[in-house]
Amino acid sequence: MRMWKLKILYVIQSLSIISCTNPEFRLDDHASGKLSVFPGQIEVEFVGSDKHWHYSIVNGKLSLQSVKDFPPAHLGMPPYVYFPDEAPKEIPKVQGFEYHGPYSLSPDKALMVLSISSETKGASNPKDFALIDMERKEVLFQRRSNNKYIVEDIAWASDSSIFVVLDETRRRHFGVSGIISYMLGHPVDVCKYYLSIYDRKGDLLVSSEVASGLIGGSGRVSWRDK
Prior knowledge:
The protein has helices at 2-19, 29-35, 176-183; strands at 24-25, 41-48, 51-58, 61-69, 80-81, 97-105, 111-118, 128-133, 138-142, 150-156, 162-172, 189-199, 204-215, 218-224. By secondary structure, the chain is mostly beta strands. It is 15% helix and 46% strand. A hairpin with a 5-residue loop joins strand 10 (150-156) and strand 11. The chain is globular and about 45 Å long. Helix 1 (2-19) runs antiparallel to helix 3. The strands form three sheets. A five-stranded antiparallel β-sheet has the order 1-13-12-11-10. The protein has a five-stranded antiparallel β-sheet with strand order 5-6-7-8-9, with no helix packed on it. The protein has one domain (26-171, 189-224): Lipocalin, CATH 2.40.128. The protein contains three helices and 14 strands. The termini are far apart.
């Protein structure tokens, strides 16, 4: 009986992938010009729909580097806080929040961006981030997006002047196959990703959608010299 259930689930998940729109990768029109002036090169990688995509952002343009079939279930994890006591030491407490999720130290070691989630929701997904001055041990900026996003990854430019945050939003796939999959205890999510770039004060410089329509997706971002 269990084997038949697994076979049915496999067919349903395959139909879910087929029935969803193909993933789309693009930058918003307003973002291209702004992205072209930043130093270095942003690399973004995505897993979803049984594929792995690698894109580079060069001179404000999103350029496909490779597509691979049947990738690992997830990308390599960045530095990540799973439990509050795993957070880097000697950093200030953020009232009402706990450190949870990816984090990144600037190359000059002066600033750190740490994901945060609400204390009242336990180990929920990291929904926002705090920018920490590591010398003075104080919070310079705290983003408040009202739980709109999940922080997927963070990366600094090599000159420590700016940093990029890769955010994710998810929705349940409730087509026919999605509903059946949900009833079997294996809900299907469709993911969308956004890139946002901030300066050392936490001021938002540019934000753009970068990917949408990924089934059960995962994403990573890095910043390297051109």
